[in-house]
Amino acid sequence: MKQQRPAFPIQLDSLSGGQPKSKPVAAPPRPAVKALPVPTKGQGLTPSPRQGLGMDSAAVRARMVQKLAQGGIQDAVVLQAMGAVERHRFVETALVNQAYEDTSLPIGLGQTISKPNVVARMLALLREGASGQLGRVLEIGTGCGYQAAVLSHMASEVYSMERLKGLHEKARDNLRTFRLHNVHLLLGDGMAGFAKGAPYAAIIAAAGGHNIPQPWLDQLAIGGRLVAPMVTPAGHQALVVVDKTAQGFQQQVLENVHFVPLKSGIS
Ligand code: SAH
Predict the structure, then answer these.
(1) What is the 8-class DSSP label of residue 236?
(2) Residue 142 falls within a domain, yes or no?
(3) Which residues of 6-18 are buried (b: 16+ CB within 10 A; e: fewer)?
């Protein structure tokens, strides 16, 4: 795996100074975060209308998992979680036949669901950092809810934030049938993180900005790991891994990626 250690300071201000800074983030006032847990027992029993997969979806998923393994994903827990979640239930009917291909797909409002390969890679990095079972995880960018569903198989609690109301609601609808009691969907600006759930064993972002927001660094547990896309000074996006230790932060910049931009505010 290609691992560059860049010579440039990549705007992770507090990464260079050892101890995490607790300086407040300069940002406009943010709307309150509205928690919207996935419905519990007795609700959400309606089967998804998207059942148009002409093949046995378990077999197609098994093939996807096999390809992920061949492509270098070795973590059995990640592979099992990817094999368990029915990705075709998260995409539009017209795209169902592409649901298990290694491709990103539109999910509405100009956003995309990441390629399975990228999802698996990021989740494997998260688990590697936490060396095993994940506790509480914060996900920035719920989108259609697919990755949150995969995470629910690997973590004790998943807090997933989305800034677009339309997608937050779509994720809630998508997840209803799965009845995942450890997934908490939050409508809010993920750049502020979600302090109430902190500290997090892991933080994962599906949208990339020009820096790593300070609240993410603050809300990460000591021993925790953050995986996020970030725009580098060279102008492309790369996957960044940040480990928080008692001595400070350690970062790695990995392969180039293509995620939607991290934006502030909700709409
Ligand atoms: N993990 C998602 C992928 C979603 S794409 C899935 O499985 O479908 C990234 C998402 O990040 C988009 O829905 C976008 O609206 C959201 N996003 C961008 N900036 C954000 C922010 N500041 N807070 C919360 N969500 C944000």
Answers:
(1) S
(2) yes
(3) eeeebebebbeee
Q: Which residues line ligand 1 (CB under 6 A)?
A: 107, 111-114, 140-141, 143-144, 146-147, 161-164, 167, 189-191, 206-207, 260, 262-264
Protein residue with its CA nearest to atom 26 in ligand 1: 141
CATH number assigned to the domain comprising residue 187: 3.40.50.150
Q: Domain range for residue 203?
A: 106-261
**Candidate of 186, 260, 264 to mutate for ligand 1, largest count of ligand atoms within 8 Å of Cβ:** 260
- The answer to whether residue 168 is domain-embedded is yes
Tally of structural domains, the chain: 1
Q: In what order do the strands lie in the sheet with 134-140?
A: 34-37, 183-187, 155-162, 134-140, 200-205, 220-231, 237-245, 248-256
Question: What pTM value is reported for the model?
Answer: 0.83
Tell whether 89 is covered by a domain.
no
Q: Per residue of the chain (267 residues), what is the pLDDT tens digit?
A: 444 433 333 333 334 333 343 333 333 444 444 444 444 333 333 334 444 554 578 999 999 999 999 999 999 999 999 999 999 999 999 999 999 999 999 999 999 999 999 999 999 999 998 777 799 999 999 999 999 999 999 999 999 999 999 999 999 999 999 999 999 999 999 999 999 999 999 999 999 999 999 999 999 999 999 999 999 999 999 999 999 999 999 999 999 999 999 999 999
Q: Could you tell me if residue 66 is inside a domain?
A: no
Task: Give the three-class secondary structure for 46.
Answer: coil
| Catalytic site includes residue 131 | no
